[in-house]
Amino acid sequence: xxxxxxxxxxxxxxxxxxxxxxxxxxxxxxxxxxxxxxxxxxxxxxxxxxxxxxxxxxxxxxxxxxxxxxxxxxxxxxxxxxxxxxxxxxxxxxxxxxxxxxxxxxxxxxxxxxxxxxxxxxxxxxxxxxxxxxxxxxxxxxxxxxxxxxxxxxxxxxxxxxxxxxxxxxxxxxxxxxxxxxxxxxxxxxxxxxxxxxxxxxxxxxxxxxxxxxxxxxxxxxxxxxxxxxxxxxxxxxxxxxxxxxxxxxxxxxxxxxxxxxxxxxxxxxxxxxxxxxxxxxxxxxxxxxxxxxxxxxxxxxxxxxxxxxxxxxxxxxx
Length: 319
Fold this sequence. Notes:
The structure is a single chain. The protein has ten helices and 15 strands. The chain has helices at about 40-50, 115, 120-135, 150-160, 175-185, 195-205, 215-225, 245-255, 265-280, 300-305; strands spanning about 1-5, 15-20, 30-40, 65-70, 85, 95-100, 105, 140-145, 165-170, 185-190, 210-215, 235, 255-260, 290-295, 315-319. By secondary structure, it is an alpha/beta fold.
């Protein structure tokens, strides 16, 4: 089978398409015939060497969707030919077939395509964990999504609207801002405008948002703390460097700052997340947005696109 392999850390050019042995499921494992693969920023950081202890060569990727090809001994939650999405992969998801633990494979309802399903795991699980397991967002509150046009941002908008939460988002390009409006955002601001934070304060009648989901905290965290509501919560979802903040902004608001890594979620938290995802898909409240699509051989281009400004939906690879 074909798979992307990384033999050395570096830029996108280290992603090589190679022939590898098709996996065979062991006890408690399944093999998924991959139809679509979701690209996430974390995979670019790992490829660049953010975890020097990562064994090489390796196949990147956690998120994929497809049909169950084979099941190992003791697997009862999934059967052959089921349509599924993956929440992790033993062998890596940038491939024609992916070996997974059965507990990391989840069924999808009939109204969801494979490309949509490949957009689910990290974006929707991260957004749910940020909103409800960390910030404890409540109906009637206002959530500010600082970067609302990518995979996590659009997922967060949809989760908020299901739960009766007001959403104000930002986007750097008009196409992305229109996407955020279409997903249900009540207001969408241009974060390139010098007055967008003043507009945020006006839209919240001077009190600020109750929750901020921050996608680029090394640029924005200091700003977030200056506009947050009293007893507000900031959830750090993304960062690409250091930031300077004014602690008194947090003190005066008695603010809480949460750091979030989906990989730290407990098994019980993950079960709750994936049960909520299935219910949201089934009733139509969740509608994954697919952005650019690349063939597996163009994985390097997909890694460049996922970090480019002007995010729009989820970037997908197809084997």
